[in-house]
Amino acid sequence: MDSFKDHPQSVGEFKSDRTDDCKDWTPRDVLIHVLRGIDKGEIDTSVLLVAWTESTEGRHSKGHFRVSSPDALVTMGLLQTTMFKMQE
Length: 88
Known about the structure:
2 domains
């Protein structure tokens, strides 16, 4: 299994850290950031939710998700907490 603990920050991640703007980095940058934190022991998670959209024909998007969680109630709590924090 590969470890991301020594994977360097991308330009987008570095820029997003400075601007605090999510448009400055790519979805892949976000995933590597989280993997680096997990592999370094800085993120100790028991639940992980990843959601994304894919463009389809025209202007439509299709949503997807993958989750690792003990149950749906814990996942929904994480999702609601995340939505609340995003609005702050």
